[in-house]
Amino acid sequence: MVAPEVTDGRIGNITDRDSNSNLPVIGSLIYCENDALDHEDIESYYPYEFNYTSALRVAPPRRAGPGYEMFPGVGYYKFHTDPQVWEDARKICAKEGGHLVIINSEEESKVIQQLFARHPKINNVQYNDFAFIGFHDMYTEGSYLTIYGDPLDKTGFTRWSHKGQPDNAGGFPGEDCGSVHRNGGLNDLTCTSKHAFICEQEMW
Ligand SMILES: [Ca+2]
Ligand SMILES: [Ca+2]
């Protein structure tokens, strides 16, 4: 079987082997954050025979997308000041090969604070002090999930921006989309409000 095309040029490490065939499963393909690739399509390629030794030899060096800045040991980030509703923000990050930020540590929260500090005034937004990031409670009120469906309390970072948050403010439909405050803490906001947003590309 022919190996699938690696559209973003990345070849991952061998992270697992199929339990039946013992063939390698390539991690970066499974987790490829490209909206054009359906997850079922990706999984259907496995297991397959793949000469990973030669693939690793020809893989290009890891690069961040345009406008992404590397914070050593943390990741690549892009702060978007052109306000979007949450869903459009999510799509824009995906098109760039990234995703809305998922904060996993205080260290990563500090990177967010640094990015915010460069933009003291953001135009045409509901709140100048918040940016959309990659979590929500659209499915079940009060049950916060990352954009990958993992519980927020498994991310390693659940510090909320202020006492009383999350508050699902504003009556129906409430606030079901995740954001981060300038102070690096989390908050829930209305999904259809327009805000700055922050994309992340994984570092590995
Ligand atoms: Ca909510
Ligand atoms: Ca809130």
UniProtKB/TrEMBL annotation:
SMART domains named in the record: CLECT
Gene3D superfamilies: Mannose-Binding Protein A, subunit A (3.10.100.10)
The keyword Acetylation appears for this protein: no
Xref: PANTHER family: MANNOSE, PHOSPHOLIPASE, LECTIN RECEPTOR RELATED (PTHR22803)
All copies of domain C-type lectin, residue ranges: 77-200
Organism: Timema podura
Keywords, ordered alphabetically: Disulfide bond
Keyword set includes ATP-binding: no
Protein name from the UniProt record: C-type lectin domain-containing protein
InterPro entries: C-type_lectin-like (IPR001304), C-type_lectin-like/link_sf (IPR016186), C-type_lectin/snaclec_domain (IPR050111), C-type_lectin_CS (IPR018378), CTDL_fold (IPR016187)
